Each structure stands twice: as C-alpha cells, then as structure tokens.
TrEMBL record, chain A:
It comes from freshwater metagenome. The keyword rRNA-binding does not apply. Keywords: Cell membrane, Membrane, Transmembrane, Transmembrane helix. Its main location: membrane. It is found in: Cell membrane. It is a multi-pass membrane protein. Residues 21-274 form the MacB-like periplasmic core domain. This is Unannotated protein. GO terms for molecular function: transmembrane transporter activity. Residues 305-428 form the ABC3 transporter permease C-terminal domain. The chain crosses the membrane at residues 21-42, 297-326, 347-374, 394-415. Belongs to the ABC-4 integral membrane protein family.
Automatic annotation (TrEMBL), chain B:
One of its GO terms (cellular component) is membrane protein complex. Gene3D superfamilies: P-loop containing nucleotide triphosphate hydrolases. The keyword Phosphoprotein does not apply. It comes from freshwater metagenome. InterPro entries: AAA+_ATPase (IPR003593), ABC_transporter-like_ATP-bd (IPR003439), ABC_transporter-like_CS (IPR017871), ABC_transpr_LolD-like (IPR015854), MacB-like_ATP-bd (IPR017911), P-loop_NTPase (IPR027417). One of its GO terms (molecular function) is transmembrane transporter activity. Keywords: ATP-binding, Nucleotide-binding, Transport. Residues 4-228 form the ABC transporter domain. This is Unannotated protein.
Amino acid sequence: MRLHDQFRTGWRNLSRQKLRSGLTIFAIVVGAVSVTVMLSLVTSAKSFLTSSFQKTGEDRRIIVTPTPGLDYRDSTWANWTDGSGVKLTDEVVTKLAAIPGVRHATPLTSFGYFDSVEAGSTLLTLKNTNMVAYEPNGTITRDVAAGRQLQATDDGTGIVISTDVANNLGFRGAYDRAVGSSITLTPRKDMGDQANKKPVILTVVGVITTESAHMEVTLNSARTFMPTFEQCTGGGQNTKPTCTNQNDLDRNGYASVYLDVDSTKHVDAVMIAAQKLKVGAAAGKDEIANQEQAFTIIGAVLGGIGAIALFVAAIGVINTMVMATLERTREIGIMRAIGATKRTIRRLFTVEAGVLGFMGGVLGVAVSFGVAALLNSILNRQLADNGVTARDVISVPAGLALLVIAVTTGIGMLAGRLPARRAANLDPVEALRHE
Amino acid sequence: MALIECTDLTKTYRLGDDVVKALDGVTLTIDAGDFVAIAGPSGSGKSTLANVIGGLDRPDSGQVMVNGMNLATAKDKQLSAYRNSNVGFVFQSFNLQVHETALENVISPLVIGGVGRKKERRLAGLAALEKVGLADRAHHKPTQLSGGQRQRVAIARALVNNPSVVIADEPTGNLDSARGVEVMEELARLNREDGITLIVITHDTGVAERATRVLTIIDGKVSERVGAR
C-alpha cells in the first residue's frame, strides 16, 4: 500500500469518529501547549536577561571591590566601603586601566551622605536607597525611562533617579514630569562635618529602570557633597597628635571599580590580572551563566510538568487506537482477505496515531503562539508602566515549535504501536467472523 | 493443468474440550478453469479448506502448492500478495466496508496492492462494476444497495485484480432464492466466459449442481464425484 494511500485511509478513519479523534487531539494540544509555553517562557526570560546584559555592556564588565569573595550581584551593591581590604585609590584604578583588554576603569563611590529627599511636598527617607557616584564616561549604561543618562555636564547640578524613587516622590506613571524637577537632599547628622552643611538642591535629568531604589550623580558632584573627617596620627602624653581633615574618598578609597573589557573573550584574562592586585573581581558574564543555569533548572521542572501532560495525552492515544482496533476488527479481516500484509495493517494504525499526534502538535503550537501574544499584550502594559522600553519579550522559538510537533507526532506513533501490532496480529479468519 | 495442489492437509481446532478435525489428510488437485463445489454439513471443514486454498489460513501439516509456492509455509508478505493478486474472495455476509462507496470497495485490492494510479484504479473499478451490471451504483454506499447488489459489488471486488481463482464461501447464503440464482449465474458466467477457476462452498444442492466437480467434505475428509454437467 502506498504511503499517501495510508495517510488518506488514516485521515478518513479518524474523521469517521470526529468527537473521539477531536478529544484525543485536544488532550495532545493541552500537553503541547503546556510544554511549548513553559519552555518559551524560560527561553524568553533567558534571552531577555542576556540581551539586557549585552545592551548595558554587563557581559563585558568586571566589578572590582576591595575584598575578594563577592559575586557579581553583590559587587553591584558594594557601593559603600568600610576601609577593609585593598584601598581602591586612583593609583589602583590606573593599574587596573592598564591591564590589556580594559577599555575603561570607572571608579564608583557611594554618596550616601543624606537622610532624606524632598520633591515638592513629598518627603522620602533614604534608608534603603542605593546612592552611587561615578564618572559618566560611557562604561555604565542605563535603561532610561525618561530624560537621559548621567553626563559630565551634570557636575554639581544634575541627578538621575530610579523609577522606584520617582514613584515614591509622586511621579508614578509620569516620569517625564519628574525630569527637570528640583529635589532637595538633606544631609545626615552623624557623618563628619555633614551636620553643619546645608541641604543640596539638584535637578532630575533622567529616570532609569533599575531593580530597586537608586540615585546617581557624577563623581565630581559627590566630591562637593562629601563630608570631611578629622584624622589624627602620632600624639602621646606630651606631644600633640598631627591632625588633618580627610574626605571620605581619601580615607576609604573607592567602593568599587567597573572595568569595561573590549571583548567577552578577554574577560577571564583581565579577571586573573586584576586578582593579582589582591582585590575582589566579579564578571558579569559569570552572573549571566549563573542565571541561565537557574533558568535551565526552572525550564526542566516546567518542561517536566508539560511532559506529564503529554504522557497523559499519549495514554489517550493508546486508548483511542485500542478502541479503533476493537471496532474495526472485521474491517481488518476484510483488508487482510484482499491482500493487506500484517505490516500494512500495522502501518495504517501507526500512521493514524501519528496523524493524531501531528494534529495535536500543530494545533498546540498555534495555540501557544496565541498564548504568547496574549501574555505579551498584558506584559507590554506592565513594562510600559515601569518605564521599561523592551516589548514583546515572550516569543515561541521556531525550533521549539517544530520540535514540539515532531515530538507529539513521535509520541502518537509510539503510543499507536501497541494497538497497531495487536491489529496486525489478528487472525484474519477470526477477524472476518467478528460481529 | 494443475493450478492448486493440496497434499495431506490437516487442521484441527480446539472447541472447549473437544478437538475438531477440520481437515484430515486432504489431498486434491484443482485445475485451471475448474468450477468446483465444496459441499458438506456445517462444521465439516468446508470453509477451512477454502481459507487454506485462498491463503487466508494455514494447515497444521501438509502442503498447498500454487505456482511453485507452498502456501503452508509462505511468509505473510508472499501470502498476502497471493491473496491480493491471485485470489478473489466472495463471502456469505458480503464483507464490504460500509463507510466506503461501491467503487471504493471494488478498487480496495488495487489500493492495498499499490496497483495503478488513481485514474487507472477508477477505470478498472468501473469496468468490474460494469461486468456485474452495477456501473450506475458506483457511488452508492453498501447500505443503499440490496443484498443481491451488495454481493455483486463483492464479486466485482474479487475480480478487479484479474485473479486466477475466485473463492466464494456460501455466496447465496444471505440472499433470497431469486437473488441467489442471479449471483450464481454471475459466478458461473465468469467461469464459463473468462475461464476463471471457481471454488464455491455451499450446502445448497442447486448450487452444487452447476459445478463441474463436487467435493464433499465430512469430518475433514474429502470425497469427490464428478458434477452433474
């Protein structure tokens, strides 16, 4: 029997039992959709993460901190130093910048010298707010929701705030309005000579999307706000100690240094060179790898749930095909009498089960595209509300779609094997007598 | 010329505790062009003999030689090919596929055998239906046809591959006498005019009388008398 005749016969037999075939296909669709959507979510999250790291150059970034042992995520938070470990002085920064492959070495420090921030009549306590100062030389790039990133011209005047801070200052959903507005920072009373200083008034130049409460100014700005501390050395019973006034940076050094490496290929070599200076160094690409690994595990778990759904669907296929062989016993006998081989009968039923799987796979993938579009439309609104520029982040990879169709077809054929063999091995004489 | 040679065929069935000898040392030869009636009481082994000759069943021992092939030991593929192209079966209960039209039923051996293209199959099917006088019923489903018409569709299906032998197992059993006579006329004509070897299983003496040879089978043993004609 020719292959296309087998397909035609299989299709015809399936259409004879529309409801039953439809329900069997529906079960496969459910399995296919759960596998496709879950795996698509994971791959989309992975690629969103990777692309956002690439967009900000974080895949080529190394963060140097005074003490070794911090991972990348923690290093990004290390904006405050207590003076332990290697003091990150300008000299160290110069050494780091000289490592082959390093394009820029950008020192960062905290400017957490303030208690609270005010915009209009809204007052916000700066307890858990990350306050970072750096030289805006292009190494650090931010996802901008409104306005722009920090520039050298912002020295002493401009500040960039995160969406979180903007929300708390009453600019939720109106970040454009935050840009250009003045905010007042009130100094802390407990740091050096800070208590004697007047509040600082700055203009918001941009709102950026970061995970948490965050504000940033240029390094030169931070220097002007910086408290000074009286530092005394020597001194005994009869001699007076020598006292000098040191600012925060002189005393503790930078909190961290961001290295912009020219290529991801050179990151490992730069890491090794930096670690020779006894400092801590963490690479963004390792963070990507960690997160990707986490997503892979989540993907395996979610995919496993989908696989269970597909397994149940396969049992549905077996059930349907067993029913079909029972109902069509006499037909099988007739076909055998007019010359069908066991192989032909076996293939007829296998093809039929394969068609069920294929249909389920195709419909399942189609539904998955629909689900992805629906999720995107919901998510796009959320992203827009949070000032994120990315859109349509969930996508069903074409390879996954084809794989799912291939797998459901394969599962169908596999599930059809047992009933098909049963049909093929029927004694034709017995089958013809079957009522 | 010998078309089918059966030698010492045996076949037993177990029915509960009883062992039924359906074939008990059957030896016979069927020549090309023969019209053989196999008669005998029910349960005597008539159908078993026909099924063994038709390659639908295998004997427990003995051999059935057709064109140098022993059906008793042939592989499923060879046996199926033999049924497909050398044998046409006509059954008491017609055994048509009820969801297919008359034409689709008739060409099904061609589809299964992978013979011809769509158009060629259609022409062959219509020709076979024409031969049994049912060309105008080609697109009717079996349920839309009378018993006699259904059996003629079955005959057309048996003929479509130009078989050398047609085996009809009680072909008139489900028909009233008038339709039964028509169907037998049809089969006899095929034997007479087209030289097709015809094996008819029957317990109807009227049918047996048309045959050139009558084999009587009782308790699995065959005896022969030359037919009335």
